[in-house]
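Perakine reductase, Blattamonas nauphoetae. C-alpha cells?
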Amino acid sequence: METRKLGNLEVSAVGMGCMAFSHGYGEVPSEEYAIEAIRKAYEAGCTFFDTAEIYGKEQFFPGHNEILVGKAIAPFRGKVVLATKLFIQDADYENGADLFTSIKGHLEKSLKNLQTNYVDLYYLHRVHESVAIEDVARVMGQLISEGLIRGWGLSQVGKDLIARAHAMTPVTAVQNLYSMMERDCEKEVLPFLLANNIGLVPFSPIASGFLSGKITKETAFSEVDDVRKFVPQLSKENIEANQWLLNLIGEVAAKYKATNAQISLAWMLKKYPNVVPIPGSKNQERILENLGGGKVKLSDEDFKRLEEGLNAREIAGHRGIEETQHKSFGDNWSKK
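C-alpha cells:
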C-alpha cells in the first residue's frame, strides 16, 4: 500500500480503527479473532493503528482495547505507527492538580497497556471545557521533548481551536468525522491543515457503514452497546432519503470492480493528500476490503462525477465536527 504523511509520521494510506473489538458495535469477537484481524491488516499493508484509553467502557473496562492492540502489534511494534487518545478527567485539573503530572499518568497507563515505551500519536479525545487547549498543548510539547510521544493531535474540533493549539505546540494530526456524508472539514479545517502540514484522520469514513450499501432501513442494531443507534444518518427515514448517494457510488464502483466502501475511501484519498482514513470494523473480511480502498485510483472524470453528485444534493441527517467531553455524541464518558 502507498504511504502518506501525518506531519512527520509516515503511515499507510488507509489505517485501521480498532474500537469495534471492544466497544460500540454490539457483541464483540473473541480476543483471538481480534488479534488475528489486526495482524492480517498488517500483512495487507496497514501500518497505522488507532485505539483509545476509554475503549471498552461498556462491555469490558477502560483500557481493554489498548491491551488487545498492544498484544496484537507486539511482534512488529517498531514497524507501525500507533495512536491512542487521552480522556481528561475532572480530577486531572481540580483542587490544584498538576495537569502535566495528571496527563503523564494517563499516558503511562496507556504505555503499559500497549506494551510499548512510546506512542507515535497521542490525541486529546475530546476538548474539556474547563481546561484551556493551550495548557494541554504545552503538556503535549513536554511529552514530546521527553520522547514519550512522537506527535499529538485533537479530535472533533474546528479551525480556530486547532490554530490555538498549533501555535503552542505544532499539531501532527486531527481526527475528525469526515466522509461523503459529513463534509464540514472541507470548509475551514482542511485548508488550514494543508497550509500547516497537519494530517486529517477521518473516523467513520464509511459513515458508520451506510456508504458500504450493507445497511438498509430494515437493519436492526444491537440493543447493547451499539453506537449506530444514535447516528442521525442511520435513522430509517434518512437511510431512505440518502439512497441516491448509494446509487451514485454503486455506478462508479461497478466500473472499477470495487465495492462501495472502497470507492468512498478512494474519493477522499484522491481529493486530499494529507487525509488518512481509519475505517473500523470487527469483521476480518470487511477490514481487508476497506484496506483495499487504498489501491483504487479514481480517474479525474469519475472523481468529478462523484463531486458533482455530492454538490447537487443535500445529505439527510448531520452530526458535525465540533464536540466536547460534556456535549458529545453517544455516551457522556465524563459522567460515567
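The CA atoms of residues 213 and 246 lie 6 Å apart.
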